[in-house]
Design brief:
By secondary structure, the protein is α/β, with parallel strands linked by helices. 56% of the residues lie in helices and 6% in strands.
């Protein structure tokens, strides 16, 4: 049984066409919205975009699903089987669209309309193209039940370059039957197609042994284009479904904490569920991207201790020990979270309304104060998180930056941390200008959300190189 490359290429072209259609439709809808409602608030634009994206991604995702139906029928004919009547309607997932749009809405706060337009189009393409793989796996499962015959799947790359994760999955051939969640995981700009088949099925030009070699020996296949694709992958866009209770959050968090360690502790009782999900999303994404040891603890700050008695910090990471702390005063309820964020933004506005140039002249002899004020003036933010809707998540991403610096990044002995801090620190955030450790953590936070323009290219290379 052999599926022709011509059939696969036609399927891939159809998927890409629907992704392109979704991208253009989303951007046209935004253009019309901005033209007709120039004074719309960020919240109004965001809510419109969520609804619009849901409709467009469903429409074109199901068109991509139609292409999956056509390829599945060809596979059945190759196998000499009459295709059974099955039905599947693709749903891109409103919660994922909501999360993607809310993150990108941070660009609207800085007036980056073009950036928001491009990011929305990219997301529409991604969700629409995913309709092909989702439909193919759903059809295969239904076919297996109808036929009483085991259906197998393969992940078949169709692009010119393939990431290590895809190579690993592609190297196994037509073996997948129950591991569909892993098989169907798509990153941005992924050109892999899930193909339904049966034992003994082959695809012209698809050599699992080659992908096994690419996975084990990537240095033999690396190209500049491949490296650029790896760098371009975003951390923040990784899907995360979340939990619905603190008990579930505590159970989920066990994967990030070594409960056998001396003085280990896991206590999330002082958090509301929204804050817990923000922390878990950050941890889930970082631990998926980096091979790093578990934390020793996740616990609330003890305000009676000398370390946190007068703190205004929202979270903290204890170097060497691996303890992650949260400030329960700020996360005990959603209302408390919003009040704290609003207080921070009001303080920022108050400071920015001052005559910073006069402040700089008055404190010309204090290098630290000058550096902080200049950074505040130039970046309009105390921390990177203040520029984004997923503020709480980025608070914990910052602490994860400390954790990764503690355990991974500082191993780079040839990297001059101090020189990098002096040159790039004040271009990221005011906090990044305060000291080297905060500079690395804030740089990682910016990297997490895809802000790399103002980062030290050498530091970005370290962040990239140390990813799985």
């Amino acid at each position: 049984m052999r599926l022709s490359r011509k059939a696969l290429d036609a399927y891939n072209a159809a998927i890409k066409e629907q992704g392109g259609n979704a991208e253009k439709a989303a951007q046209r809808a935004l253009d019309t919205w901005f033209a007709e409602r120039p004074n719309a608030s960020i919240a109004q634009t965001r809510n419109f975009c969520i609804q619009m994206m849901d409709e467009i991604c469903t429409l074109y995702g199901n068109a991509a699903g139609d292409a999956a139906y056509a390829l599945r029928d060809i596979v059945m004919n190759v196998a000499g089987i009459e295709p059974p009547a099955v039905y599947y309607e693709y749903d891109p997932g409103r919660e994922y669209i909501d999360e993607a749009v809310r993150y990108q809405a941070g660009k609207l706060k800085t007036g980056d309309m073009d950036g928001f337009r491009k990011a929305t189009g990219d997301a529409a393409r991604y969700f629409a193209e995913r309709g092909g793989n989702d439909t193919m796996t759903a059809l295969g499962q239904a076919d297996g039940k109808k036929l009483g015959k085991e259906v197998r799947f393969a992940r078949v790359p169709t692009g010119t370059t393939t990431c290590p994760y895809c190579c690993m999955l592609a190297s196994r051939g037509f073996v997948y039957s129950s591991e569909l969640k892993a098989l169907n995981a798509n990153h941005r700009n992924c050109d892999c197609r899930i193909v339904e088949g049966f034992e003994g099925m082959e695809v012209e030009g698809y050599d699992p042994d080659k992908y096994y070699d690419m996975w084990k020996h990537p240095e033999k296949y690396e190209t500049q284009e491949h490296e650029q694709q790896q760098i371009a992958k975003s951390l923040v866009d990784r899907p995360f479904s979340g939990v619905s209770s603190i008990d579930e959050a505590s159970e989920y968090a066990k994967r990030f904490v070594d409960l056998t360690a001396y003085k280990s502790k896991l206590d999330m009782k002082g958090m509301n569920v929204e804050a817990a999900n923000s922390m878990l999303k950050a941890l889930d994404t970082v631990y998926d991207a980096y091979d790093v040891a578990p934390l020793r603890s996740i616990q609330r700050m003890n305000k009676r201790s000398s370390a946190f008695k007068n703190t205004t910090a929202e979270a903290a990471y204890q170097w060497s020990l691996g303890d992650l702390f949260y400030n329960a005063d700020y996360v005990k309820t959603t209302k408390a979270m919003m009040a704290h964020r609003e207080d921070g933004m009001k303080l920022l506005d108050d400071v920015l309304s001052m005559d910073i140039d006069a402040y700089l002249r008055k404190n010309a002899g204090n290098q630290a104060k000058v550096r902080y004020a200049e950074a505040l003036r130039d970046t309009h933010r105390a921390v990177v998180a203040q520029s984004y809707e997923n503020y709480e998540e980025l608070v914990y991403v910052h602490e994860c930056g400390h954790m990764l610096d503690d355990r991974l990044f500082r191993r780079e002995k040839d990297f001059d941390r101090r020189a990098s801090f002096e040159k790039y620190g004040r271009g990221i955030s005011a906090y990044a200008s305060s000291d080297v450790k905060e500079y690395i953590a804030e740089s990682f936070t910016a990297y997490y959300v895809g802000e790399t323009t103002n980062l030290d290219p050498e530091l970005v290379a370290i962040f990239d190189r140390m990813r799985r």
